[in-house]
């Protein structure tokens, strides 16, 4: 076997090898049925068992309270940028929501929401190129708002809320696409948490929506049925043909996560992985980390080199060394190492070693 290739892609991103091996087996012959997992009906008892198991694992691993529903929705995370306002704004007459803008995706979220109501941006990191998370507290959210919105981890800018803000009585909605189940969190303090699967949970195109029951059933009249959380809740996410493959892979990822020790074990490992890289940045005049240290992400580590030429060379040599998909997002450039739950510590150590060597020879 050749040396392993470590995948630092931002999403779709690395899945655990054990999961992919299981997928490979089930692809040809699921449950000894002689048919593929992608060939069985979403209404078959076998798929219903997959869905039920996925729910059970999410509840157990995520410690999700009983008064929250789990929905598997179409269109990835960004579909919920519309789904959230369509389902929640009409809860109160002002049709108002308050957003904290901490990067590219939280901006897309509030721009989309503006199509449906009165959206206030109470805090923004835009003036400092989103290198930090601005303060966002309950006092900054008007009482007539239907919800407050944050993006817990900013995939492109490499920043993360050290902890989720306490919004007390105001439903807190969180786009946790790039850090769900990467550390222990208290879901009972949230109204809605949603995440596209393609980083910590599985394949792209589906989102997990964890929603407090009392927030279901307030959708605006014009909400398309397949964006209405009540329709998903009533039909156990099977109002139409859902992405059976995505949910199936997610159930395997959740089992893997449980076997690894869940979010608490992940948090420890993710800290070690991230620190292996931040240590190189902190000890270098050659590389410059782009996030303020207090808000550094444990999922996406971002930095720049002194020139475009050196950046291109770094990427080329990294790839030749089995370090794949390190290019920063096109809106910011530079380098980004995405180190979601499945990325092993060995990959981060190898990247850290490569960075030191590159600095020694090219710096
Ligand atoms: C925080 C965050 N939200 C939303 C998205 C978009 O997700 P999707 O492509 O599933 O719509 C991404 C990245 O892909 C993201 O990092």
Number of helices: 9
Q: What profile does the largest beta sheet have?
A: 7 strands, mixed
In spatial order, strands of the major sheet run 2-10-9-8-5-3-4
Please state the second-level CATH architecture of the largest domain: 3-Layer(aba) Sandwich
- What is the fourth-level CATH superfamily of the largest domain? Type I PLP-dependent aspartate aminotransferase-like (Major domain)
The H-and-E topology, N to C, reads as EHHEHEHEEEEEEEHHHEEHEEH
Shape: globular
The whole-angstrom Rg is 21 Å
The low-confidence runs, each spanning 5 or more residues with pLDDT under 50, are none
**Based on the structure, what is the oligomeric state of the protein chains?**
single chain
Q: What is the number of domains?
A: 2
Bound molecules: pyridoxal-5'-phosphate
Calculate the mean pLDDT score and round it.
97
What structural class do helix, strand and pairing data support? alpha/beta
- Roughly what fraction of the amino acids lie in strands? 15-25%
CATH topology of the largest domain: Aspartate Aminotransferase, domain 2
- Number of DSSP strand runs: 14
**Helical percentage:** 25-40%
End-to-end CA span? 33 Å
Q: According to CATH, what is the class of the largest domain?
A: Alpha Beta
How would you describe the overall organization of this protein?
With 363 residues, the chain is an alpha/beta fold. It is built from 9 helices and 14 strands. The model has no long low-confidence stretch (mean pLDDT 97). A 7-stranded mixed sheet has the order 2-10-9-8-5-3-4. The longest helix has 21 residues, at 262-282. The protein folds into 2 domains: 18-260, Type I PLP-dependent aspartate aminotransferase-like (Major domain) (Aspartate Aminotransferase, domain 2), CATH 3.40.640; 262-362, Aspartate Aminotransferase, domain 1 (Alpha-Beta Complex). α1 packs antiparallel against α6, α2 runs parallel beside α6 (244-260) and α3 packs across α4. The chain binds pyridoxal-5'-phosphate (PLP). The site of pyridoxal-5'-phosphate (PLP) has 12 residues, from α3.
